[in-house]
């Protein structure tokens, strides 16, 4: 297995990651498509599984200590803060896309800008940090990278789909109907266009790299147009 590219190692260390063993970091940054080139390198999926749990526990702990909000509100904020969209946003903020090891076709197809891939790799890096340095170091890294989101309004306001559901009920309208009206791109870089409609009111649509995010954006657009 080849080592980390010098620029990638320098980038990781500049972001505060401690690299004693390169193997977990290489694994964390490797997409399954990379092995199509003949390389025999594990991809990020196992570390992503681990990192997802470390992220969830760290954020849940922070939220619990930050105030006395009820369980429902804590869950709402937790779901927003650990979502794939938030992880992808953090990944872009730290310039992760250029360091992901993708196969040529996946990179040509825009895999380095896929919310799904970026979110998964961000969680895999958390998993690698846990393996290398332990929970306390991984938690500290999460709090540093997520500081803006933790201190901000992410997840405090009602999720647009919940808000739209309540708006429809409050206005004696039929429940919102979500429909995928277009799907483009390969599986690892898919884009979904979702239309949400409320009978006798109107419709709005949005496009994103996941169905859930497209639904969220469509609900938000509907509320802005008709709410």
UniProtKB/TrEMBL annotation:
<keyword id="KW-0378">Hydrolase</keyword>
<comment type="subunit">
    <text>Homodimer.</text>
</comment>
<keyword id="KW-0479">Metal-binding</keyword>
<dbReference type="Pfam" id="PF14622">
    <property type="entry name" value="Ribonucleas_3_3"/>
</dbReference>
<comment type="similarity">
    <text>Belongs to the ribonuclease III family.</text>
</comment>
<feature type="binding site">
    <location>
        <position position="123"/>
    </location>
    <ligand>
        <name>Mg(2+)</name>
    </ligand>
</feature>
<keyword id="KW-0963">Cytoplasm</keyword>
<feature type="domain" description="RNase III">
    <location>
        <begin position="8"/>
        <end position="134"/>
    </location>
</feature>
<dbReference type="InterPro" id="IPR011907">
    <property type="entry name" value="RNase_III"/>
</dbReference>
<keyword id="KW-0698">rRNA processing</keyword>
<dbReference type="Pfam" id="PF00035">
    <property type="entry name" value="dsrm"/>
</dbReference>
<comment type="function">
    <text>Digests double-stranded RNA. Involved in the processing of primary rRNA transcript to yield the immediate precursors to the large and small rRNAs (23S and 16S). Processes some mRNAs, and tRNAs when they are encoded in the rRNA operon. Processes pre-crRNA and tracrRNA of type II CRISPR loci if present in the organism.</text>
</comment>
<dbReference type="InterPro" id="IPR036389">
    <property type="entry name" value="RNase_III_sf"/>
</dbReference>
<protein>
    <recommendedName>
        <fullName>Ribonuclease 3</fullName>
        <ecNumber>3.1.26.3</ecNumber>
    </recommendedName>
</protein>
<feature type="binding site">
    <location>
        <position position="48"/>
    </location>
    <ligand>
        <name>Mg(2+)</name>
    </ligand>
</feature>
<dbReference type="InterPro" id="IPR014720">
    <property type="entry name" value="dsRBD_dom"/>
</dbReference>
<feature type="active site">
    <location>
        <position position="52"/>
    </location>
</feature>
<keyword id="KW-0694">RNA-binding</keyword>
<keyword id="KW-0819">tRNA processing</keyword>
<feature type="domain" description="DRBM">
    <location>
        <begin position="159"/>
        <end position="227"/>
    </location>
</feature>
<dbReference type="GO" id="GO:0004525">
    <property type="term" value="F:ribonuclease III activity"/>
</dbReference>
<keyword id="KW-0460">Magnesium</keyword>
<keyword id="KW-0255">Endonuclease</keyword>
<feature type="active site">
    <location>
        <position position="123"/>
    </location>
</feature>
<keyword id="KW-0540">Nuclease</keyword>
<feature type="binding site">
    <location>
        <position position="120"/>
    </location>
    <ligand>
        <name>Mg(2+)</name>
    </ligand>
</feature>
<keyword id="KW-0507">mRNA processing</keyword>
<keyword id="KW-0699">rRNA-binding</keyword>
<dbReference type="InterPro" id="IPR000999">
    <property type="entry name" value="RNase_III_dom"/>
</dbReference>
């Amino acid at each position: 297995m080849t080592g980390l590219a010098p620029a990638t190692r320098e980038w990781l260390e500049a972001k505060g990651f401690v690299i004693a063993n390169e193997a977990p970091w290489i694994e964390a940054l490797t997409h399954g498509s990379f092995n199509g080139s003949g390389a025999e390198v594990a991809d990020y999926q196992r570390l992503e599984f681990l990192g997802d749990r470390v992220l969830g526990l760290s954020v849940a702990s922070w939220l619990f200590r930050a105030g006395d909000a009820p369980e429902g509100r804590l869950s709402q904020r937790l779901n927003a803060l650990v979502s794939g969209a938030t992880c992808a946003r953090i990944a872009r903020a730290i310039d992760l896309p250029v360091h992901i090891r993708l196969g040529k076709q996946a990179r040509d197809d825009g895999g380095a800008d896929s919310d799904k891939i970026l979110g998964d790799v961000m969680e895999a890096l958390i998993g690698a940090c846990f393996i290398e340095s332990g929970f306390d170091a991984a938690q500290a890294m999460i709090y540093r990278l997520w500081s803006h989101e933790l201190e901000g309004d992410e997840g405090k306001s009602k999720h647009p789909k919940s808000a739209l559901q309540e708006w429809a009920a409050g206005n004696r309208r039929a429940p919102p109907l979500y429909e995928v009206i277009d799907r483009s791109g390969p599986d690892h870089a898919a884009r979904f266009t979702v239309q949400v409609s409320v009978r006798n009111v109107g419709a709005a649509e949005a496009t994103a790299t996941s169905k859930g995010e497209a639904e969220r954006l469509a609900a938000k657009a509907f509320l802005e147009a008709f709410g």
